[in-house]
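It would be a great kindness if you could assist me with a short task in structural biology. The matter concerns a single protein, recorded as an amino acid sequence and a row of backbone structure tokens. The record follows directly beneath this note:
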Amino acid sequence: MSKTTINDMTVGSPAKLIIQFMIPMCLGNLFQQFYNVVDSIVAGQFLGVQALAAIGSTGALMFFVIGWLNGLTSGFAIMVAQSFGAKEYDRMRHYVAMSIYLSIAFALVMTIGFSIANETILRMMNYSDEIMPAVKGYMGIIYMGLLVTVAYDALSAFLRALGDSRSPLYFLMISAAINVVLDIVFIVVIGMGVEGCAYATVIAQAVSAFLCFIYICKKFPILRLKKEDFRISLKSFGKLLGLGIPMALQFSITAIGTIIVQGAINIYGENCMAGFSAAGKLQNIFMTVFVAFGATIATYVGQNRGAGKMERVKQGVRCTQYMIWAWSIIDMIAMFFFGKYMTYLFISPSETEVINVAVTYFHTVLWFYPFLGSIFLYRNTLQGMGYGLIPMLGGIFELVARSVIVTLVAGRTSFAGVCMADPAAWIAALVPLLPYYFYIMKKWKTTNL
């Protein structure tokens, strides 16, 4: 195995390490998002506004389901990163094995549960009878593919814990290309409708998971598991769940708030649903930089916390904050001046009402991007140090803020009023995160954490 495959983030320039790790992470996040974005583009261009509304409006629900698995496996990987940073490789492999058990169990339970509750959940989100069959069929297929989703999430999380953020990117690039081809074949050639998008997504995810598994087996002997690694340990399960569950809950609590907003948007009709969907997809593309910084700082902090180098943790957080502020300014400029034209990816320029909805959303929320970026920084820093409760509490603050705004304005004011739910949530999430981070760093100076 090449010595450069594993990236020890406990030595070297924090800023350089973070940037080098973040760039592949960002590209990987873009390609992972590419699945649903391509689904929306193909559906909007070839099947029309109703199909775009059907697929695009599932983003919040998919974030709830897939975000849980992503948060869970990311939490598990923190123990792997800390063990790697401490050079305790036997313990690291044991945590990997226990994570596999837990990931499979959660994916199976969720597949069964969500498949049964599929229509009930969609009814609660105010979907009309006209659009219900398409949404129900699309999500049903996504649920059946959760096992391959968690497989990729877990395997890529293990690689990132060891400092390898590039390999998952390469696999996603291949599977993203497969997704594009299958979307066109299933929808344009075969004429399968929106369900074709779901099948393309699941198949593409399966390919990325398989490639990731083969790569680990061949190139990472340090992750090669033995029979003894799989000996069940309730204590290890407890430690993993102690980090994984709060991270998963944080993702899902945030997603619940987004689902509440989506339910409010659905009241305003298909044009608002389609415009909000297109705006959300574009915003998420730009926000992948924030997500990548968050995932990077979690690995960086996890390794340095395991090595006992807390001063490096502080240095890494500081330089990452500056980079997040800089990217926020770029995002604000891009969305303000070019957001309208970027929506043409999803819908014809002749659909002026849909495009105006997207522009209204951009001009309402873009001023608050620095707050959004900071959430990923401080939430993942605390998680990387092993603190799961406060990041979850930040998610609860988000949920409360979104719920209050939606309750006050949905159906009573214009669409722009509902848009304010996102900025309110971003600010609220920082209320517990920022003070606790500074409390922990101050405490570190006087006691051994």
